[in-house]
Amino acid sequence: MTTTVRLSAFAAAAVFASSASAQGLDWRVTPYMWGTSIRGDVGLGPVRREVDHSFSDILNVLSGAMLMHVEAQSGDHIGFGDLAWFAVEPEDEIATVGGVAELELDATILELGYAQRIDASAFEVGLRYWDIGVEIDPALAAGVARGDNWVDLFGGFRHTSELSESWDLTTRANIGAGGSDLTIGVQLEFARTLRRGNAIVAGFRLVDIDYEQRNASGVPVAVDLMLAGATFGFKFD
Questions:
Q1: Which residues, 6+ apart, have CB-to-CB distance to 170 below 8 Å?
Q2: Above 50 in pLDDT, residue 57?
Q3: Fewest 10 Å CB contacts: which of 34, 60, 66, 188?
Q4: Distances (CA, A) of 229 to 94, 105, 223
Q5: Phi, psi of 55, rounded to the nearest 5 degrees
Q6: Nearest CA among 93, 49, 98, 58 for reference residue 222
């Protein structure tokens, strides 16, 4: 993500949080960065490639990204949403475990859900929309470009532990299925509370996807990927 895009996201989040506070809800808006690695394999029709890219590999070929988490709370009721979009478009060939290929990946993960808080914990349910676009250029075949989108129902829990007056730790885990065969999400987030309730947040996020279906064009699409890495953001309260 470019510096201009990051600054725009932070400015928009600050304005949104400020105006939303006047509506009587406790709003928290968190633009963040995710230093994810990508491991697993993707398949389009008969072409399948195993992928193993570290964050440093992805950073060199990242063409765009936008990540934002939003929550609105009233009493013990919490509504939340999360958007994670990134595009990986290498200019040169990338080495994969299965050989040498050029892999372009455009992924959007949009999450909308509801959580019911019970003391320091909360149970949550929601919908997660996936839009995965993949292009594979094998060394000995013409480029294959396809993708698919689907919706999963997920359920899980979260728990917040107060470590000190200024620090707390939130643990979140969920499991989903529906359009996909199975998805798993795990997240740890440390928050350092500042003045006026804002906070610096940092932690770790893992998302595992297991999907294999025919898309609208009848082409088999297989996505078996694990995205995992450190997160860092700023929470506007």
A1: 158, 159, 160, 161, 187, 188, 189, 191
A2: yes
A3: 60
A4: 20, 17, 19
A5: -65, -35
A6: 49
Residue 99, pLDDT above cutoff 50: no
CB 171 within 8 A of CB 162: no
Q: With beta carbons less than 8 A apart as the criterion, state whether 10 and 58 touch.
A: no
Q: DSSP code of 237?
A: -
Cα 67 from chain centroid (whole Å): 7
Place of tokens 């885990």: 173
Amino acid identity, residue 123? Answer: F
- What's the CA gap between 130 and 180, in Å, rounded? 9
Find tokens 């990338």 and name the residue: 94
Whole-Å CA distances, 130 to 95, 125, 154, 233: 26, 16, 13, 23
pLDDT tens track for 29-46: 999 999 988 888 887 777
Q: Give the domain ranges of the chain.
A: 3-235
